[in-house]
Specification:
The chain contains eleven helices and 14 strands. By secondary structure, the protein is α/β, with parallel strands linked by helices. The chain has two domains: 51 residues, no CATH class; 206 residues, Rossmann fold (3-Layer(aba) Sandwich), CATH 3.40.50.150.
C-alpha cells in the first residue's frame, strides 16, 4: 500500500531531526514529503543542475528528489532535442525550464513563461546558479491564454507557489496569446511546448491555434483529474476535440522507458503528450 505524502510528512516531523535528516539523505524520494523549514542549494537536480530548495514549496521538494516529472524526463531522453526552441508555459521556478535548457544545447532556446512575481524571483535565482543554461533561457513575465487581457495571480491556499489566473488575487498579470508571442518574437521554429496552467490549458491552446498548425510542436500538458470538471465537465473532451480535430494531433500517455501509448480523453494520465503525424522526431 502506498503511504500518502501527508503521512510521510507527519512522520518526518514527529521523529528527532537527526533521524529525519538521515532518512532524507538516504531516500531521495522521501524528500517530496519533507516538512517546511529547510532552505539550501541542491547541486544534483537532473544529475548536475544547481537549484535553490526551500521545503516550504512543493515543486522544490520534488526537485530535491533529483528529478521532476520523471516520465517527461524519460520521454525527452528518447528524443534528440539539440537545437530545439521550446516554450515552458507555467514555468514556476524552472523545474522543466532547466531540464530543457540542458537538453537543447548551446544552439537551442527556451522561453520560460511565468506570470507569478514570487515564482519569477525564484526562477531567476535558479538561472543565476546555472549561467551556461541561463544563456539559453529567456524569462517572460506573463500569462498565456485565449486572448490578450489582464488577470490576477491567485496563489492556492495551503500550496505556496502554486497559483492560477482568475478575476481576483494578489498580483495583476498581463496575459497574451502564444500566437501573438510567436509573431512578435519572429520565431522561425517551435519544437516543444509544455503547458501547466492549472486548468487553463484549453485557453492557451486556443490562443496558440495558428502556431500549432504552422509548426506542429510536441505538446506536453497537464491533465490532472481535478481539472476534468472545468468548462462544465467537458474540459478534456474539448481539449481532445480541438487538438485532434482542429489541429490534427494525436494524444498519448508516456509509458515505460518513455515510449508513447495512445489515449483518449477517457483514459488520460496526469500529463498528456500530443504529437502531430507530420512532426518528424529524430531518434
Amino acid at each position: 500500500m502506498q503511504v500518502s505524502r501527508a503521512i510521510k510528512r507527519a512522520f518526518l516531523q514527529a521523529v528527532p531531526s537527526s533521524i529525519a535528516a538521515r532518512l532524507l539523505r538516504k531516500y531521495p524520494n522521501l524528500r517530496k514529503s519533507a516538512p517546511p523549514g529547510r532552505s539550501f542549494i541542491f547541486g544534483e537536480y537532473c544529475s548536475d543542475i544547481r537549484v535553490n530548495v526551500d521545503t516550504l514549496y512543493k515543486v522544490e521538494r520534488i526537485m530535491w528528489s533529483g528529478s521532476y516529472e520523471p516520465k517527461l524526463v524519460e520521454f525527452l531522453d528518447t528524443r534528440n532535442a539539440s537545437g530545439w526552441t521550446c516554450l515552458d508555459i507555467g514555468a514556476n521556478v524552472g523545474a522543466v525550464t532547466l531540464l530543457l535548457a540542458k537538453l537543447v544545447g548551446a544552439e537551442g532556446k527556451v522561453f520560460a513563461i511565468e506570470p507569478g512575481p514570487p515564482n519569477l524571483r525564484r526562477l531567476q535565482k535558479n538561472l543565476d546558479l546555472n549561467p551556461e543554461l541561463a544563456r539559453r533561457v529567456q524569462v517572460v513575465p506573463a500569462g498565456m491564454g485565449r486572448s490578450r487581457s489582464e488577470l490576477w495571480w491567485a496563489e492556492e491556499k495551503g500550496n505556496p507557489g502554486n497559483a492560477l489566473l482568475s478575476q481576483e488575487g494578489t498580483h495583476r498579470i498581463p496575459v497574451d496569446t502564444v500566437d501573438n508571442f510567436v509573431r512578435e518574437h519572429d520565431l522561425d521554429r517551435l519544437d516543444f511546448v509544455k503547458i501547466d496552467v492549472e486548468g487553463m490549458e484549453l485557453d492557451v491552446m486556443h490562443g496558440a491555434a495558428e502556431t500549432l498548425r504552422r509548426f506542429c510542436p510536441i505538446l506536453y500538458f497537464e491533465t490532472l483529474a481535478r481539472y476534468s470538471e472545468v468548462h462544465h465537465g467537458g474540459n478534456f473532451q474539448l481539449i481532445e476535440s480541438f487538438l485532434t480535430g482542429a489541429c490534427g494531433y494525436e494524444l498519448f500517455r508516456i509509458g515505460t522507458g518513455g515510449e508513447l501509448e495512445p489515449v483518449t480523453q477517457r483514459n488520460l494520465d496526469d500529463y498528456t503528450v500530443a504529437i502531430h503525424p507530420t512532426n518528424v522526431i529524430t531518434e
